[in-house]
Amino acid sequence: xxxxxxxxxxxxxxxxxxxxxxxxxxxxxxxDVFSAYARRFAELGRYRGSVVASVNQEFAAWSAGVRAGDxxxxxxxVSGGQQVAAAEDVVELVHTPIAMAQWAQQVKAPRDGAxxxxxxxxxxxxxxxxxxxxxxxxxxxxxxxxxxxxxxxxRAQFAIDRVVMVHRLGRLEIGETSVLIAVSAPHRxxxxxxxxxxxxxxxxxxxxxxxxxxxxxAVWVEGHRPGPVDSAQSFSPADESIS
Length: 243
Prior knowledge:
Layout: E1 2-7, H1 9-15, E2 19-23, H2 30-40, H3 42-45, E3 52-55, E4 58-60, E5 71-75, E6 90-94, H4 100-106, E7 114-121, E8 125-126, E9 129-138, H5 140-157, E10 163-168, E11 170-173, E12 177-185, H6 188-205, E13 208-214, E14 217-221
Helix pairs in contact: 5-6
């Protein structure tokens, strides 16, 4: 039977393809699909412990079975069409510059007493190396779905009004915005807490990858293994600071 297999980030570089249709045996599991590629690409097998799989855009166990026509994706640790998550929320992946002031203005309403904005920008270094530019890629349908789940988790925990969550894809130059989250609320505490929950969860759970380019080469930036959005997740002042 045939399934569609997708690779992202470093895994795409190793296999030399972003997606392809392949034949697998009846009764095959996610593990079997990955192993078939690992036999073709020895380096791929070394990433087995940090890779997460999905089937039809939902996180899946390695033991999960696959059926004809399934879309099986293998996701390395994340670096960190418009859809709406609620009546006035905006969730987008874009390939054009993000206008921070415009989006911040859009979430304002007469009933609000605060707007909190997280503006993630491209810096000119990574450690001791000078960064030239970045490239972002995403498993777009799944990324948008997970971003909408984050908005739902924000609303479940905090009394907020409007949310904008926009992430840039493609090539970004130094100083450009990579991700923007804007939250309005009647009271500032809810806006601050919801915005922090959003960026910290996005960095851990949304399948978006960053490649950093230097004068002497380029590297995929890998941190967390992507996982489900936890609607009960919260942060206290003692948690890791936003960066």
